[in-house]
């Protein structure tokens, strides 16, 4: 699911699987530009709740660093190219 203003219809929250590095960047700057997958596809990847586990299994099984699952209010997501801004 690519980031778009307001999230998917009917979704209260969307979820972002982030590395510790991305989480630190978000805390410091208030925005992140995503990981390698996001940059290579030109799309900021978010998940519905039922997509989190399959996404972890498909893309993050070999990640050695800590991962964070961010719960984001879908109404507050603002699309800005491939940057995720949280007001």
Automatic annotation (TrEMBL):
InterPro entries: DUF952 (IPR009297)
Matches recorded under Gene3D superfamilies: Protein of unknown function DUF952
Coiled-coil annotated residue ranges, if any: none
Protein name: DUF952 domain-containing protein
Organism: Rubroshorea leprosula
High-level lineage: Eukaryota, Viridiplantae, Streptophyta, Embryophyta, Tracheophyta
């Amino acid at each position: 699911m690519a980031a778009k203003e307001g999230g998917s219809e009917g979704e209260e929250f969307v979820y972002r699987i982030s590395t510790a590095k991305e989480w630190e960047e978000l805390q410091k700057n208030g925005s992140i530009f995503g990981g390698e997958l996001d940059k290579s596809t030109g799309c900021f990847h978010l998940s519905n709740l039922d997509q989190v586990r399959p996404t972890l299994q498909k893309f993050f099984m070999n990640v050695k660093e800590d991962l964070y699952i961010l719960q984001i209010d879908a109404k507050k997501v603002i699309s800005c190219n491939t940057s995720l801004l949280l007001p």
